[in-house]
């Protein structure tokens, strides 16, 4: 709801009439998998930050404002600490900077614009700084030191070396070279933008001061294909995903933004081009690492301003009927499917109860059962998959179920428990004592009485006689 209000405010100003803001706010509600906000997912916050970045970038391009470009870079840096997908906003910022370069006197303009902004909004700036300082002390008073445990110092040094090289080349070029193109490519203004981006990164990062080097290291490792991005096959697509809800509606808006970019080029208006570059880069990133529908939400949101621009006439004019046809066509499916997440949750709750009932027939207090993965709708498996494996010192947890992963089994055996059963669809194939290959290794499995009582839900239970953790 807050995001829809933000869209209303920004697009009303950008496109010149409140009806455009209303249309954009309604389209905001149709972003893919918006119901995931009830979980720990930061995607809606990410979309709001990226939309804000895009708006400030466009205003910076229109006004050739050095301060606005720096502000956009800072918001983008903050967004990167929200979710790594924000890295795809960088091409949009660079394009706008090239098209709306603030001129040779950008330093003076930057100082003057910053002073003017602070003077006009001194109360808001003072409150924001005070809140951040208060949070900094509240969150860090008990951990003054900075830990370098687990960081990739080589990667951080390489990044610092690249920045230093760019600064050195830029200094030499502006001192000895008169070639205009080289002076534009190696420009101190881009270093200032990088500094603003770093400030945006540091604002939330400093709130966890002790672990900040490790977080920064892990961020860059993920960006170069390590950690959660390791072993991902790029462009592993299923066409059917793009021909049904919710990606079909998102693709329609993104396609319209592409048409708007082409029309903008023909009209010599860069506004839809800038928005489409952001939307296109975000959509490409989502396609490279297709995992969830919500990955397409940032690209969809950045496509909305360009798609609406396509139907805008010159001057301050209300949105025409065709815009409301688009809004209805995109938004109605969202309301038709609004209970889908609730129905899915009920199904998962039923599966969790069935899993527990099956395990009760096999397990004693010092035993645990394997379940297919941390996606299994069992609290224990979710705890290991979403908490235990990501923190340095996980709290003690009374495991009764463990994900079928070799790395997860020690979480139970370290508590003095051992693996005694498996609950999942693979158990339905066991009709006699026989080998069973699971994700955590080879086991010898045997059927148990009543082990197929929940076969209609795709669940069964078998006793594990030997294998890892038994």
Overview of this protein structure:
It is a single chain. The protein is an alpha/beta fold and 470 residues long. Helices cover 57% and strands 7% of the residues. The protein has 18 helices and 6 strands. Strands 2-1-3-6-5-4 form a 6-stranded mixed β-sheet. Helix 3 runs parallel beside helix 5. The longest helix has 24 residues. The protein is globular and about 80 Å long. The two termini are 50 Å apart. The model has no long low-confidence stretch (mean pLDDT 91).
Briefly, what is this?
The protein is α/β, with parallel strands linked by helices and about 475 residues long. Helix content is about 55%, strand content about 5%. The chain has a 6-stranded mixed β-sheet with strand order 2-1-3-6-5-4.
Largest sheet: 6 strands, mixed
Stretches where pLDDT is under 50 for at least 5 consecutive residues are none
Terminal-residue CA separation? 50 Å
- SSE series: HHHHHHHHHHHHHHHHEHEHEEEE
Would you report the number of β strands?
6
Percent helix: 55-70%
Q: Mean pLDDT score, rounded?
A: 91
Widest sheet, order of strands? 2-1-3-6-5-4
Instruction: State Rg.
Output: 27 Å
Shape: globular
Secondary-structure-based class equals alpha/beta
Name the beta content range.
Answer: 5-15%
Q: If helices are DSSP runs of H or I spanning 4 or more residues, what is the number of helices?
A: 18
């Amino acid at each position: 709801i807050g995001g829809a209000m933000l869209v209303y405010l920004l697009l009303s100003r950008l496109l010149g009439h409140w009806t455009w803001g209303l249309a954009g706010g309604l389209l905001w509600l149709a972003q893919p998998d918006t119901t995931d906000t009830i979980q720990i997912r930061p995607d809606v916050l990410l979309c709001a930050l990226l939309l804000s970045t895009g708006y400030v970038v466009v205003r910076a391009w229109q006004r050739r404002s050095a301060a606005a470009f720096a502000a956009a870079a800072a918001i983008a840096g903050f967004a990167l600490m929200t979710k790594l997908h924000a890295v795809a906003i960088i091409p949009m910022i660079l394009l706008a900077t090239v098209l709306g370069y603030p001129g040779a006197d950008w330093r003076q303009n930057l100082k003057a614009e910053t002073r003017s902004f602070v003077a006009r909004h001194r109360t808001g700036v003072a409150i924001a700084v005070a809140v951040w300082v208060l949070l900094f002390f509240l969150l860090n008073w008990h951990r003054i030191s900075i830990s370098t445990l687990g960081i990739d110092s080589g990667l951080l040094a390489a990044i610092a070396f690249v920045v230093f090289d760019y600064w050195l080349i830029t200094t030499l070029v502006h001192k000895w070279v008169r070639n205009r193109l080289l002076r534009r490519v190696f420009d101190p203004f881009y270093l200032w933008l990088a500094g603003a981006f770093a400030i945006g990164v540091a604002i939330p990062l400093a709130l966890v001061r002790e672990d900040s080097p490790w977080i920064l290291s892990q961020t860059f490792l993920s960006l170069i294909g390590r950690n959660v991005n390791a072993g991902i096959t790029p462009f592993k697509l299923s066409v059917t995903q793009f021909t049904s809800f919710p990606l079909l509606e998102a693709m329609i808006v993104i396609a319209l933004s592409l048409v708007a970019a082409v029309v903008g080029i023909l009209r010599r208006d860069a506004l839809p081009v800038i928005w489409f570059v952001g939307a296109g880069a975000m959509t490409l990133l989502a396609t490279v690492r297709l995992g969830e529908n919500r990955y397409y939400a940032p690209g969809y949101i950045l496509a909305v301003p360009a798609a609406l621009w396509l139907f805008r006439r010159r001057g301050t004019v209300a949105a025409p009927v065709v815009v409301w046809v688009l809004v209805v066509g995109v938004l109605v499916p969202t309301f038709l499917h609004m209970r889908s997440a609730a129905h899915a949750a009920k199904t998962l709750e039923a599966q969790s109860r069935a899993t527990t009932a099956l395990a009760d027939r096999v397990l004693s207090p010092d035993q645990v059962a394997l379940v297919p993965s941390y996606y299994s709708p069992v609290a224990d498996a979710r705890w290991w998959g979403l908490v235990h494996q990501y923190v340095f010192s996980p709290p003690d947890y009374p495991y009764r179920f463990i994900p079928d992963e070799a790395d997860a089994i020690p979480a139970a055996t370290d508590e003095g428990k051992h693996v005694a059963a498996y609950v999942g669809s693979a158990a339905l194939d066991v009709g006699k004592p026989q080998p069973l290959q699971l994700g955590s290794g080879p086991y010898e499995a045997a059927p148990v009485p009543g082990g197929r009582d929940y076969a209609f839900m795709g669940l069964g239970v078998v006793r594990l006689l030997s294998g890892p953790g038994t």
